[in-house]
Amino acid sequence: MNPRSIWLGKKPSLKTTLAVLTLSTFSSSLFAAPLNKADIKFIGPIAADMQLKPYQTEHQDAIINNLLPSLQQPKKSITVFGEKLKWQSFDSVNALTLGGLQALKLTASAERFTQGTLTIKGIEKAQLFINSEKQTPTKDVYELALSQGDHQIVIIAEQVANWNDVEFDFTAKTDTHTLTFSSKEQHGLSAKQLFDAPTVSALSLSPDAKQHLVSTRHYQDSTGNTANTVTELKDDDNRTIYRFESGQPSNVIWSPDNNYIVYLLEGKLKQLNRKTLSLRVIAENLDGAGGFSYFDNTSLIFNWSKSPTADSSLTKHYKGLQDRWSYARITSQVYLLDINTGLSKILSQGPLSHSIEDFNSKRGTVLLSRGTQPMLATTHPTTELIELNIANGKSEVIGLFNIFNQAKYSNNDIYVTAGPDFKDGLGRNLPEDMLSNNYDGQLYLLTDNGKKASALSRNFDPAISQLEVLNNGDAIVKVTDQDTIALYLYDKSKQRFNKLKTGFDVVEQFSYSNNRSPAILVSGSNASSPQQLKQLSINKNKAKTLWDSKPEGYANTDIASLDEFNFTNAEGVEIKGRVYLPTDLDKNKQYPALVYYYGGTSPVTRGFTGRYPFNLWAEHGYVVYVVQPTGATGFGQEFSAKHVNAWGQYTADDIMQGTQALLKQYPFIDKNRLGNLGASYGGFMTMLLATKTDMFSASIAHAGISNITSYWGQGWWGYLYSGEASKNSYPWNNATLYSDHSPVFHADKVTTPLLLLHGDSDTNVPVGESHNMYTALKLLGKDVDLIEYKGADHQIFARDQRFDWWSTKLAYFDQHLKNEPQWWQYLYPKK
């Protein structure tokens, strides 16, 4: 078993168990710490009349594990078989023996990574849990390894001869390993909460807004990397009408007449009657089918893909640049399915894949998009938008576009989302000498069957990423608005954008109704508050909360406070940022700080959690500065355009200037204990900064780019991304950009300790990018470490790997910024 970090939720082996306390007697050890009985809560007897204890049955573990969650709750009492039992202080217990079961509960708080041994005497039969994880002793002794933070200890006792003889003794490994014990229920934010807490994984609102489907997902130790998901059908009062118990539905759609729900489940397309809750199977054997929508009340429109026959040849002859993609040779066509009989008929055909953009059942037309050539070798693949008449099978070309994202009908017109260069730069709002960043999404309107086009968002700074259209022709757009993700309503008649008041910093998912009084079902979070589910009335622009994850996942939890911190860079441009402060901050002390950034073409948004848990880092005693350097979308076209052909030129200056401004604003930050980190383009920035400055004491780059040329040529989408980041620049016409901006070409300038992290199966930024830098720095005798995650792609998703990944980063910074190498040495011992 991997001895990484029990605090993050792994099943422990002997050497990874944790807990620390001393009770009743004092150890003779130099590093023993006494614990007052008043710091322990006691409850019992639980089910005093049980004839056999759990250990005397064949189901001991199941019985104990099912009881455990009730004991872990921050409640004053529990009710067992109708008897109410109250938690009391352990120092009030003077019984010799008690029937049934008994439980002890307390909190152990570590100011730093702590190791030691726990000895329990006087309890013949007991199970000990730390943060829900069962601990395994050798005889009465537990080997402990506890990270910084608060940890809940629960002991369930089955057999005790004399409670007066019960003794707990903790011996610390060294004098630096200390713990504080208490009976408090309030605790610091933990990694397990951030990953395991329930979240909305899918949602869908009925057309009449009277019902909605919502899927919630959570994780737990017993199921490991497998999520526990529940999908429920609820009414407009949020009462559950129907629950999916076996399997979880996908591709949920509602009939226009509001009578049915159709979804995919276990390979079958099923129809649920909203009134009677009766079920029937419409069709099956639909491998490769998806994107189902009701075309009308009697038929469904969808895409059906077909993978090529497995290739058993000894070689692969590449057909084009896209052929590196595992899915490049899959073709997809559009079909119409009759709900009554299950019969499907094809609507599109040919060697090119077709995607459904939108449809109009009254007119009998479908908007389709397709690439003009398979495997086209260009940084901006051309998209053809066509309108298909289902009745006669004829299609009309609406337009041929080098820049294109999405298209939707708006009555007789067509909305399009695309970058500023759409239609020969129709959406540009830039000085003539600047190149557009086409990741900065804009909104357009095509009229007269595409013959005319107008730019709707040229003076609208947020970047548009998703488009939905209401019956009246107005549009709902999801946008990047500085460091937030927001929803706006585009009023077509008044030609203006109005922000919808969701109450979220970051909108995650949304679904809308299309009745006379449209509503939106939306999930999201804020920088300092976890996910909620709300329903918003568009006409009133007012939201009500349907569900809140905080009581379920974050009760009695301390969450870092947040400051807004902006500064003006040397170019006179305001650079946004925010600062997470440790709980119980003492401004008279000096604190280490972490600086985080992305630096690519999007900002670091204000979600509560994610792959980079800023609130958790603050809980571990770091001041965390998140900076939004030049080049990101959401701040206007001129700001985002500076990403083009820059490769860190402006970004590095903003990060360094922002860090200096931070030190002036927050004098309790120790300038000699600064760390920095980023991933992907942010990993590139970490390596680049290491060649430009020595202001940081330790740096971490995850999946970073060290050589722009090799990323451009070897990453699956490297040449496409470079079509914007290195627009019109190639190794043969701008060698200076590709070499001078690549960190590996300046590795000799690095003086900061650097940790390189990478998934060994990364297809976006191949792992060789970290190998390049590791090889260079090793040959130069620099302080560098490389850690790969086996089987991981560009992001670390699996629960066990995510916890290990989080631990590794914190342990590395603890070693270099807190002079606490023990955690790192524990995770990565020298052989």
UniProtKB/TrEMBL annotation:
Pfam families: Peptidase_S9. Residues 614-819 form the Peptidase S9 prolyl oligopeptidase catalytic domain. Residues 1-32 form the signal peptide. Keywords: Hydrolase, Signal. PANTHER family: ACYLAMINO-ACID-RELEASING ENZYME, SERINE PEPTIDASE S9 FAMILY MEMBER. This is Prolyl oligopeptidase family serine peptidase. It comes from Pseudoalteromonas neustonica.
